[in-house]
Amino acid sequence: KQFDKMTDATKFKRALVDAEKLAKELQERYDELNEDHKDLTDSNHSNSDESKGTEVDLNPDTGLISCESLYNLLTSLPDQCIVIDCLSRGDFMTSHVDTK
Question: 47 and 81 in contact (C-beta within 8 Å)?
Fold first, then answer.
């Protein structure tokens, strides 16, 4: 019976050591991710000098920008913009302008 108590204490200590090790590893990962996020944020702020004068008319409710703002972005920063059309097929067919 005494041996069982010792092994339970040993298992508990081992579990505690493992949990502390895991907590430390998770904290290191978290710190690394935060550092990467900070680097990305800093690089975006440094790129903002290039986009001065380019105003984006963002609707806070929908997250959409106006056609004029999109045009200004595409003409002033063509290498920094990606446009993804996510219209449904029906909406595309309704609004598509045939250029032929």
Answer: no
DSSP states of the chain: -HHHHHHHHHHHHHHHHHHHHHHHHHHHHHHHHHHHHHHHHHHHHHHTTTTTT----B-TTT--B-HHHHHHHHHH-GGG--------HHHHHHHPPP--
- Tens digit of pLDDT for each residue in 26-82? 888 888 887 766 765 565 555 544 445 556 777 778 878 888 888 888 888 888 888
pLDDT at res. 3: 59
Q: Are the C-beta atoms of 69 and 51 separated by less than 8 Å?
A: no
Quote the pTM value. Answer: 0.34
Q: Which residues contact 73 (CB under 8 A, 6 or more apart)?
A: 54, 56, 65, 81
**Within the chain, what is the greatest distance between any pair of CA atoms?**
90
Q: 16 is written with which tokens?
A: 């505690």
